[in-house]
Amino acid sequence: MTIRLPRLSRLPLQQLCAAAVAALLLAACSSTPAPRGTGDLGLLIERASGQVAVVETTGRSRLATVQGLGDLSHAHVTYSRDGRYGYVFGRDGGLTKVDLLLGRIDRRVVQAGNSIGGSISQDGRLVVAQNYDPGGIRVFDADTLEPLSEVPAEYAPGFRSKVVGLADLPGQRFAYALFEAGEIWVTDLSDPRQPRTQRYPAGRQPYDALVTPDGRHFIAGLFGEDGLALLDLWHPEQGVRKILSGYGRGEQPLPVYKMPHLRGWAVAGDYAWLPAIGRHEVLVVDTRDWREVARVPVHSQPVFVMARPDGRQVWVNFAFPDNGKLQVIDTESRSVVETLEPGRAVLHMEFTPRGEAVWVSARDDNKVVVYDTETRRPLAELPAANPSGIFFTSRAARTGF
Question: What does the alpha-carbon distance between residue 223 and residue 255 come to, in Å, rounded to a whole number?
């Protein structure tokens, strides 16, 4: 009996190897995620566990979890120009560069003992941290996180102040306020290894600040007195002038349970909508002459007062113990048109880039609620571990964020 063996392929060995390699590459490609942009991405702070979630706003979903970011009890995020990297500033002084596309830490340094935020330069090459301890700012290369320079907030021999309200400005400059010193400083980082700083008296205990979307005016809120300090950055030689001085005159201020926050999100058209310290009011200011034009009574002490991108609505959350509610102000009638209850301990909110939705964190209910801003109805809920700050990559293209 004759046994016939199957005929072997007569293909050259090189071709067989090439075919095998091609098959392996094809299999690998089939498991690789498709390329995507970053315009609808963001980071969600999960403060209790020292981690962040990478989220996307188109499908309202969570894409990845990045762990190992340290103390995020007071965290802030700013973004690279292309939106790929988020720079997370932690309360423990940690500065972490997170790759949103790969869902992992790219680089991390611990640069201070107590930090509360930071910003990125106009050209995207510098990242600057604002610190409580030691008081001052520190400058880093945005690519490598190499330290480049430091500006100690020493306002008198041996005395350093906490730094608050850091904002990026046109021309590689940064403005910030010094809480104990009662000053505004503007630092030019055109040469990042040789900072040049100008100092301006501001008032008692500036607690936070904003720069207007056009980069012209820097405004610091004052905790130690009724009023705000305004610096015209086109004419800094004119110094700081007070606006809204004595807005609570004749009234007994309430105990302040949480400092309000200021940022450029408070500007809607020609008006700025600002939280009144120790009062249940939102102040409306005409940005053409910086005079108060109205006050809107609200549920409790406002913390975040944020305008929808088109300026048609302003959303407000509140300090403890009334932090389970949100209110929506119609900017035309200057009145509250809706009160919402997303959950317990509403700490933060963020509008999608064009404002059709807003994401709201409810820390004590371990969730984020997404609302349609027209109907004010919930669109989705995402589980999250003690969520706080929500930061979308659309911030990358905005001055002062």
Answer: 12
**Please, what CATH class does the domain formed by 114-250 belong to?**
mainly beta
Residue 39 has phi, psi (to 5 degrees) of -65, -25
Which residue is it, tokens 């002038």?
241
* 3-state secondary structure at position 395: helix
Residue 86, H or E segment: strand 85-89
Beta bridge partner(s), residue 105: 98
Single out the residue of 313, 321, 185 nearest to residue 240, CA to CA. Answer: 185
Q: Give 235-272 pLDDT, tens digit per residue.
A: 999 999 999 887 765 466 655 656 677 876 789 999 99
CA dist 223 and 259 (Å) reads 8
DSSP string of 123-188, one letter each residue:
TS-EEEEEEEETTEEEEEETTT--EEEEEE-EEETTEE--EEEEEEETTTEEEEEETTTTEEEEEE
96 CB-near residues (< 8 Å, 6+ apart): 69, 70, 87, 88, 90, 105, 107, 108
Q: The tokens 């309000």 sit on which residue?
A: 260
Residue 166: the pLDDT is 97
Angle at 373 between CA 72 and CA 220, to 5 degrees: 50
Domain ranges of the chain: 114-250
Q: Write the single-letter amino acid at 49.
A: S
What whole-number distance in Å separates Cα of residue 168 and Cα of residue 148?
17
DSSP string, 176-194: EEETTTTEEEEEE-SSTTS
The model's pTM is 0.89
